[in-house]
Amino acid sequence: MGSFYDNSIIPTHLRRDFDVYDRINTLDLDLGSFDQWMDRDLKGANICSATIHESGLVYLSGYGYGPGQMYDDPERIKEGQKAAQFIADSMIGRLHWTLACGGEGGDLNDMLYTVKGIGMVVSTDVAFDSAPAVTNGFSSRWQSVFGGGVGAFAEDGEDQSYSGVHARSAIGGFTGRFSIEPELIVAIPPELAKAIIQNRGWIFPLPPQEAKRVRAEYKAKHS
Length: 223
Prior knowledge:
- The protein is an alpha+beta fold.
- The chain has a single domain, classed as CATH 3.30.1330.40.
- The protein contains 7 helices and 6 strands.
- It has helices spanning 3-6, 20-26, 34-37, 74-100, 131-146, 190-200, 208-222, and strands at residues 50-52, 57-60, 113-122, 167-174, 180-187, 203-204.
- A 6-stranded mixed β-sheet has the order 4-3-5-2-1-6.
- A hairpin with a 4-residue loop joins strand 1 (50-52) and strand 2.
- Helix 4 (74-100) packs parallel to helix 5 (131-146).
């Protein structure tokens, strides 16, 4: 487990006893490489992908994906769920590099628990009733990696950990050329949040000068 997680306030009966990366490997998820995630910085950017608060909260920006407008058809809902799962996979990679790129010692095993999710589902059908069902594609994938009763590793609705379970809103009625845009808030140990902020700041991607420094340090360490 992560060293920050081991020293956290999580009570014994709720602590994960599995390595998050073992589940990621079993699910064959691609977290991407350092170079892929660090190939851009905040130069000219309107928003960032993640913001870290010194309290330990990490805010992950929304990301839209999918074949287009949703409606209450079982096959269309499955398409939306697959899109939501794809976004979850991308967010897992983003969170990994948000926590790990600066070499402070943290990674996904230091994620304490998931706080809040929002799923904004594109549908102009006023009778659309399946926004929660579409967003479940995101939530179940997140639970598969971090723990929860509807994840891939749950048995009879139970998992060893529930750190992937989150409070959530799932809302339909938006316009856009995609199907769903989820966003997420997770908790990490305040000590890790402070270490990251003190070393490279609270935002990901990084400001240009910090990105340049972190790239150079990473390459020197891994060359």
